[in-house]
Design brief:
about 100 residues, three-stranded antiparallel sheet, about 25% helix, binds zinc ion, DksA C4-type domain-containing protein
């Protein structure tokens, strides 16, 4: 577990309780224009009794539907912060810093 992963777990996951069900959700970012992120919450899975929510969230971090690892800095990022450039999958921070892309 890196500190980045810890931060992602804190910021991008929540447990929503609907009636008597608990659902693990993950935040998905999309962009309305370059500076306006829109967060939508997608269901990862329903948490049944005995399931370890932390462990399930950690497993979802490895899921490429929601997260990916930047080729340049090696940090895990939500897909909304990653872009594909010349066959590289890089984060927005690296795109600005190393590829002179301005958002
Ligand atoms: Zn990066």
């Amino acid at each position: 577990m890196t500190s980045t992963d810890e931060q992602l777990l804190q910021d991008f996951f929540r447990i929503r309780v609907i009636a008597d069900r608990a659902v693990l959700e993950v935040a998905c970012l999309s962009w309305e224009g370059p500076h306006t992120p829109i967060t939508t919450w997608e269901t990862v899975e329903e948490l049944r009794s005995g399931m370890d929510a932390q462990a399930r969230a950690r497993a979802a971090l490895e899921d490429e539907r929601w997260f990916g690892v930047c080729t340049l800095c090696g940090e895990r990022n939500p897909n909304g912060w990653l872009m594909t450039l010349d066959d590289e999958c890089i984060c927005h921070r690296c795109a600005e810093r190393h590829r002179q892309i301005v958002f």
